[in-house]
Write a structure and sequence with these properties.
Elements lengths: L6 E7 L5 H9 L2 E7 L6 E6 H8 L2 H4 L3 E5 L2 E13 L2 E12 L6 E10 L5 H4 L4 E4 L3 E6 L8 E4 L8 E3 L10 E2 H4 L7 E6 L16 H23 L1
Parallel strand pairs: 1-4, 2-6, 7-10
Antiparallel strand pairs: 1-3, 2-3, 4-5, 5-6, 7-9, 8-13, 9-12, 11-13
């Protein structure tokens, strides 16, 4: 679990407008967005495209409480969705944020950080390999308890063993959405698997008289000659 420094987004309000106005806004290097949720009305906003693009490159931006400053007024939000241009993953078309209340639990998707590989006997002594089954977890918690990520320690796993949700220790105040919804704790997270054995090339044995072997060689020679003839043509 980790907490990052405060992440701040600066935005300005915008009038709800048509396609042409939004297109012009994007040409000016701005991204349209919206803030919704809570007791306040939805607010249409706009912000600098390159700054948002840079923020999206950081893992914490997707799983942290963000401070959004709109026209000088600050409020707490989380990133809920964003749309990319259909032919470019470096052009953002729209971003959605949701307000959060310190007293209300929220659902978030938080990444796993796997640790303990250097101390894992299943890897270092038995020659196994770590295979991650899922790389993130849907959780429920109050905003103050939201972790940037969840640490998964694999140091105690032996060859062939799998860690499940039942084996995972979540930070205080954090619950798994699967379990809250009545699901099972048998969902696998990571396992130590045996490396795949290298497949040996099967040895081809040609049985029969020497003449038969010569016949085989002659046939191969004829095939090669046929290929050369085809190439010449």
């Amino acid at each position: 679990m980790s907490k990052t420094n405060k992440l701040v987004i600066n935005a300005d309000t915008r009038e709800r407008s048509g396609t042409s106005s939004v297109r012009r806004m994007r040409h000016e290097g701005l991204v349209p967005g919206i803030v919704y949720g809570g007791e306040d009305a939805n607010v249409n906003i706009k912000f600098d495209h390159n700054k948002i693009l840079h923020s999206l490159d950081h893992e914490a931006f997707h799983s942290s409480i963000l401070e959004m400053v709109i026209d000088g007024n600050s409020e707490k939000v989380v990133l809920r969705d964003y749309q990319l241009h259909p032919t470019s993953d470096v052009k953002i078309m729209h971003v959605d944020f949701q307000r959060v209340s310190s007293k209300e639990k929220l659902s978030m998707t938080v990444p796993f950080h796997f640790t303990g590989e250097d101390d894992c006997d299943g890897i270092n002594l038995e020659g196994g390999a770590m295979i991650s089954i899922i790389n993130e977890l849907d959780i429920v918690c109050l905003p103050a308890d939201l972790p940037e990520y969840i640490t998964v320690d694999i140091s105690k796993l032996a060859m062939g063993e799998t860690m499940t949700l039942a084996d995972l220790t979540l930070p205080k105040g954090v619950e798994s959405q699967i379990l809250v919804s009545g699901g099972e704790d048998t969902q696998g997270i990571v396992q130590i698997a045996a490396p795949r054995a290298e497949e040996e090339e099967p040895e081809v044995v040609v049985e029969g008289e020497e003449g038969a072997e010569e016949g085989v060689e002659g046939a191969e020679g004829a095939d090669a000659a046929s290929e050369e003839k085809s190439d010449d043509e």
